[in-house]
């Protein structure tokens, strides 16, 4: 009896071994076959982003390690060949002055992103260049030095990038020629550019807000809005061709432009302007300007269909508003030009045109003052610097600035993408994103090499492409539509399977451990 | 303005002085090629059909290239918002129709304008697109529907491959053009409402603020028993410069007494006893009232019909702005013109409202039942489901030709969703005259989730006959995620379109009309089913797993072997103790009794 009982309590060693092996084989199957299959079938595809490479493209790194360096060559046309020492003197003075400007900027605006840009000016002797002066005045900075009997002065040509300094005996005698050249370049020729990168005063963000968001494509829409419904027409095609084409030809050097126009009748104001007896006119107060545009009613929506262009297009609305006869004349308070800018949106000009007195047709000449005001507003909206007078130099400055800004934005996009992919572990990363990231990196490299070699216009276009690519990487459709499957739901679905299975396995484990003892 | 002198002063002033001579020639502008018209047609039993027509020509529209500066798109009357469709895609024609309600052809006759501008229930869009292949055409179509969807606040973005058909015979014949495709899609479920009217009115040069369009109001329009809005954009006839012609139509059927009532009190209230109009020839007292036959005396103004007045006259455009009246002599129509000089009454319609400052129309009749002779269509078509099963069903289409001597030639077009699997071999005509009646069949079978089924039949319906056509179909199960919200409501089928081919010898136009839409109920699962299935299968799997696991792990011991062991079992000992106690207490109780 005693023997029998012990045999009941304790199985044979062989049987226990078999049982343990069976148990372990279950655990093995679950761990090494079940779990991998489960992980494999429920995993989300994540392409491997080149994280190391992206972090290498940190914008501040690019600036401080001199990867981006902008070097502007200025060809100096010296009156005589024995003035070579003057060139090297001026160069030293420019370098010193620039260094102090940069230092001052870093102190006053320590957080300004472009503070550490490697930006320099190199003076070259025009006559020592080979081949000799076959240099295009519209593409290269040329500085002529000329002697004059009168007062010392300077002149910047509005038709090219050429400028002239007139020096006098007085300056030569006091040995100030080199200083004069340096002052001219830093304080007049390229002052606006220096102000972009190395602002000397505390920065205010106000100015930046007005500028339309830079995009590779711009769409400008001219609208004639009329408060009444009688006949009215404008010769916009001719006015545009004559007055605005030159400006647009410049603008197209760094961006793609499209333009259209429309006339809208019965465009009534959404509020009643107040009548001012002293001016004998209706007055639009500054506070009314914010609500001037009647978005519900005025059909100002802009849309383009071409593939992918919508998100990379900046729209600028230029509105010529002719008030109805009941509210005419309409004047804007404190505005001599009777116009205003709507930041990042466009500009409005109010024209008091009486169709019964002036006729129904706005001719090209009638539109001249309007187009002048529009030109000024377009320049502001595009963020063109106000100085110097030469449009060539102004566009050049903007081109360089935009290229660097685009690089900054692209890198910003990429690093946001990287942060996003690292912080959201269950977001899908399709191969397309990877492709766009690689494209962006390539294009940034290209832009930098163009900028370093002085090909600013191509550099700007390349940087635009980089921005488009980085945007497509970040706003990839498949990535944005994240699979939303809350954890509770997963638990609810798995628990009927995992609950019983694991309980059985756990009890099995206890039994096996008992046996083992 | 100092900042622009590089531009203006240097480039412009010189140039302008040169151009000043040309300036006089350049200032001769065209007036706007816009026209509008409102036709009022009284119908029997105090109904009235109001048809608004707006016609517009565009200047030439050219394709925009992004690489160069173009300013060829100067929009005047033609709305700029529609421009991108023709600038950036190869769409050549566009027809968009919104409609709701029921038009009873047996009562009111033919649809206005031969049905050319009246849609079926919901939203209908068709367009011709120039493309090298069908795929390319479809890609353009997708751009188009997405664009229109945003523009008209309608869910046209749900148009995809599964709802798009390519009609062969129904509309114009595209085979005469190389590489031209005609695509059509219908959203029968779409509720047409004010959100669609507002963008519609904004396309008008007057934006609904002047002329006859100022009469249009969402509440009144969508209150009517039948209404249809359409936009049709076609290349202008005899023009090679890319000019377009746009016509916008709004047709609405107004029930005059109910509209009066609506404006009197927008929230319906029961009529008080003494205001009831009872038939004097029948018994009537406090409890009984047989309604009198409809009112015959009518007198109203435009304001009573539309709730609004014509606000401004239409000043834009060289075209006319007219109000016409189409009826018999029993109706007295007078146009009231208010000018500074005084009120004058103009008796003769049509009225040109362009000429007057303030304008109103007065309509009076003593015999409202006497209307213009109704022009009935040559054919009536109705469509219904047959069968009662969840997995299959049938469709019966009845063609009725009431004419005693004329046969009717027509094209019958139907597009069916892919989840209706139709069997063409079951298509039969009750009279067994297939060869005489069916002239041509174009059938495109559906492909699951890719393409809808399409039937296009050319038929000749003999005079004085009623012919019914049947076919059968299977209903298929959809995937879980394919069911729309509220799937038990059913699935709307597109209204089928009938084109009655006009007799060219009598210079008749083709007449278009649409049947009603049908509501198909599909076998619909319980939507918690997948979870139930998962949970149930999991439980079964866990059970099997547990059994197998236990079989493999547990030790088997015979019953005899366990007996000796059982005495030592704690549970058994406890049970024994308990039983003994129980017995003793029962015995105690008994002895006490």
Commentary on this structure:
The complex is a heterodimer of chains A (517) and B (593). Chain A has 517 residues and is an alpha/beta fold. Chain A has 3 domains: 2-43 and 484-516, no CATH class; 72-197, no CATH class; 212-382. Helices cover 50% and strands 17% of the residues of chain A. Chain A contains 18 helices and 15 strands. Chain A has helices at 2-9, 13-42, 51-56, 59-64, 84-108, 169-174, 177-189, 191-197, 206-210, 236-251, 286-289, 355-358, 364-382, 391-423, 431-452, 456-474, 477-480, 487-516; strands at residues 69-77, 118-125, 141-147, 153-156, 162-167, 217-226, 233-234, 256-264, 274-276, 281-284, 313-322, 330-332, 339-342, 346-350, 361-362. In chain A, a hairpin with a 5-residue loop joins β4 and β5 (162-167). By secondary structure, chain B is α+β, with helices and mostly antiparallel strands. Chain B has 3 domains: 2-121 and 188-365, no CATH class; 380-520, Immunoglobulin-like (Sandwich), CATH 2.60.40.740; 555-592. Chain B is built from 13 helices and 25 strands. In chain B, the strands form 5 sheets. Chain B has a 9-stranded mixed beta sheet with strand order 6-5-4-7-8-2-1-10-13. A 5-stranded antiparallel beta sheet of chain B has the order 19-20-17-23-24. In chain B, β15 (380-386) and β16 (392-401) form a beta hairpin. The longest helix of chain B has 25 residues, at 529-553. Chains A and B meet through α1, α2, α10, β8 and α13 of A and α1, β3, α3, α5 and α11 of B. β8 of chain A pairs parallel with β3 (73-75) of chain B, so a sheet runs across the interface.
Q: Terminal Cα separation of chain A, in Å?
A: 23 Å
Strand content of chain A: 15-25%
Strand order of the largest sheet of chain A: 2-1-3-5-4
Strand order of the largest sheet of chain B: 6-5-4-7-8-2-1-10-13
The N- to C-terminal Cα distance of chain B equals 123 Å
Tally of distinct domains of chain A: 3
- Globally, the shape of chain A reads flat
GO biological process, one term (chain B): attachment of GPI anchor to protein
InterPro entries (chain B): PIG-T
Pfam family, one (chain B): Gpi16
Protein name (chain B): Transmembrane protein subunit of the glycosylphosphatidylinositol transamidase complex
């Amino acid at each position: 009896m005693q023997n029998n009982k012990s045999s009941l309590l304790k199985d044979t060693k062989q049987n226990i071994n078999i049982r343990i092996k069976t148990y372990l084989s279950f655990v093995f199957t679950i761990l090494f076959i079940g779990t991998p299959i489960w992980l494999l079938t429920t995993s989300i595809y994540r392409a491997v982003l080149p994280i190391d490479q992206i972090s290498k493209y940190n914008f501040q790194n690019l600036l401080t390690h001199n990867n981006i360096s902008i070097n502007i060559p200025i060809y100096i046309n010296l009156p005589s060949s024995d003035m070579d020492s003057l060139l090297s003197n001026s160069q030293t003075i420019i370098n010193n002055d620039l260094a102090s400007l940069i230092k001052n900027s870093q102190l006053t605006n320590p957080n300004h992103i472009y503070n550490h840009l490697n930006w320099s000016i190199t003076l070259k002797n025009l006559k020592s260049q080979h081949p000799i002066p076959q240099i295009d005045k519209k593409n290269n900075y040329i500085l002529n030095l000329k002697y004059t009997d009168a007062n010392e002065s300077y002149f910047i040509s509005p038709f090219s990038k050429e400028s002239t300094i007139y020096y006098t005996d007085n300056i030569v005698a006091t040995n100030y020629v080199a200083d004069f050249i340096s002052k001219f370049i830093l304080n007049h020729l390229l002052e606006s550019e220096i102000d972009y990168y190395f602002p000397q005063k505390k920065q205010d963000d106000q100015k930046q807000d007005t500028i339309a968001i830079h995009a590779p494509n711009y769409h400008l829409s001219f609208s004639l809005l009329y408060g009444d419904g009688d006949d009215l027409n404008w010769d916009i095609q001719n006015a545009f061709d004559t007055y605005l084409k030159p400006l647009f030809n410049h603008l197209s050097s760094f961006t793609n432009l499209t333009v259209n126009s429309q006339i809208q009748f019965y465009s009534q104001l959404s509020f009643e302007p107040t009548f001012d007896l002293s001016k004998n006119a209706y007055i639009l107060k500054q506070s009314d300007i914010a609500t001037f545009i009647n978005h519900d009613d005025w059909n100002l929506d802009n849309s383009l269909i071409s593939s992918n262009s919508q998100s990379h297009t900046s729209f600028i609305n230029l509105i010529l508003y002719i008030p109805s006869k009941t509210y005419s004349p309409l004047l804007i308070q404190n505005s001599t030009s009777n116009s205003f800018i709507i930041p990042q949106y466009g500009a409005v000009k109010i024209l008091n045109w009486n169709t019964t007195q002036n006729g129904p047709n706005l001719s090209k000449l009638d539109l001249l003052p309007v187009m002048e005001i529009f030109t000024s507003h377009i320049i502001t909206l595009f963020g063109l610097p106000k100085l110097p007078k030469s449009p060539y130099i102004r566009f050049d400055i903007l081109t360089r600035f935009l290229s660097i800004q685009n690089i900054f934005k692209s890198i910003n996009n990429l690093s946001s993408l990287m942060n996003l992919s690292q912080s959201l572990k269950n977001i899908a990363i399709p191969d397309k994103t990877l492709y766009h990231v690689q494209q962006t990196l390539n294009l940034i490299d290209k832009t930098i090499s163009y900028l370093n070699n002085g090909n600013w216009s191509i550099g700007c276009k390349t940087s635009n492409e980089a921005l488009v690519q980085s945007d497509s990487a970040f706003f990839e459709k498949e990535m944005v539509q994240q699979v939303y499957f809350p954890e509770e739901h997963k638990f609810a679905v798995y628990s009927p399977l995992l609950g019983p299975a694991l309980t059985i396995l756990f009890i099995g484990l206890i039994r096996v451990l008992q046996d083992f003892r | 303005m100092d900042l622009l002198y590089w531009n203006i002063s240097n480039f412009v002033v010189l140039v302008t002085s040169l151009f000043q001579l040309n300036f006089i020639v350049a200032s001769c502008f065209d007036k706007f090629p816009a026209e509008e018209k409102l036709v009022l047609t009284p119908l029997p039993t105090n109904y009235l059909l109001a048809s608004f027509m707006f016609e517009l020509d565009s200047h030439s529209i050219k394709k925009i290239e992004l690489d160069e500066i173009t300013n060829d798109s100067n929009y005047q009357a033609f709305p700029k918002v529609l421009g991108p469709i023709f600038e950036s895609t190869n769409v050549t024609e566009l027809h968009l129709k919104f409609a709701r309600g029921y038009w009873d052809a047996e009562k009111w006759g033919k649809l206005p304008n031969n049905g050319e501008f009246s849609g079926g229930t919901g939203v209908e869009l068709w367009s011709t697109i120039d493309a090298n292949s069908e795929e390319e055409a479809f890609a353009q179509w997708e751009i188009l529907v997405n664009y229109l969807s945003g523009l008209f606040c309608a869910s046209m973005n749900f148009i995809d491959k599964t709802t798009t058909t390519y009609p062969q015979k129904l509309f114009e014949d595209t085979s005469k053009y190389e590489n031209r495709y005609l695509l059509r899609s219908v959203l029968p479920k779409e509720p047409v409402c004010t959100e669609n009217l507002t963008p519609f009115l904004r396309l008008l040069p007057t934006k609904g603020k002047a002329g006859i369009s100022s009469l249009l109001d969402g509440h009144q329009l969508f209150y009517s028993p039948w209404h249809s809005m359409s936009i049709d954009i076609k290349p202008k006839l005899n023009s090679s410069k890319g000019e377009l012609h746009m016509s916008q139509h709004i047709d609405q059927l107004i029930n005059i007494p109910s509209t009066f009532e609506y404006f009197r009190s927008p929230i319906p209230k029961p009529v008080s006893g003494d205001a009831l109009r009872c038939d004097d020839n029948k018994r009537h007292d406090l409890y009984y009232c047989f309604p009198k036959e409809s009112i015959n005396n009518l007198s109203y103004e435009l304001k009573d019909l539309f709730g609004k007045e014509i606000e401004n006259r239409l000043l834009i455009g060289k075209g006319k702005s007219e109000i016409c009246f189409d009826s018999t002599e029993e109706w007295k129509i007078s146009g009231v013109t208010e000018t500074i000089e005084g009120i004058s009454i103009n008796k003769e319609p049509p009225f040109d409202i362009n000429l007057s400052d303030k304008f109103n129309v007065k309509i009076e009749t003593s015999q409202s039942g006497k209307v213009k002779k109704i022009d009935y269509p040559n054919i009536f078509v109705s469509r219904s489901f047959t069968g009662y099963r969840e997995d299959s069903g049938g469709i019966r289409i009845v063609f009725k030709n009431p004419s005693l001597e004329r046969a009717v030639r027509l094209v019958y077009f139907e597009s069916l969703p892919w989840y209706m699997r139709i069997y063409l071999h079951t298509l039969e005509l009750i009279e067994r005259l297939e060869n005489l009646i069916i002239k041509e069949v174009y059938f495109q079978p559906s492909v699951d989730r890719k393409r809808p089924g399409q039937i296009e039949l050319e038929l000749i319906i003999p005079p004085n006959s009623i012919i019914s056509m049947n076919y059968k179909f299977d209903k298929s199960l959809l995937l879980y995620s394919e069911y729309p919200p509220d799937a038990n409501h059913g699935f709307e089928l597109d209204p089928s379109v009938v084109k009655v081919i006009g007799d060219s010898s009598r210079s008749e136009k083709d007449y278009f009309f649409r049947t009603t839409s049908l509501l198909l109920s599909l076998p619909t699962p319980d939507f918690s089913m997948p979870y139930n299935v998962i949970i149930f299968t999991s439980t079964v799997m866990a059970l099997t797993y547990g059994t197998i696991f236990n079989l493999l792990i547990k030790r088997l011991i015979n019953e005899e072997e366990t007996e000796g062991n059982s005495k030592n079992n704690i549970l058994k000992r406890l049970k024994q103790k308990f039983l003994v106690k129980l017995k003793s207490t029962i015995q105690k109780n008994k002895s006490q009794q």
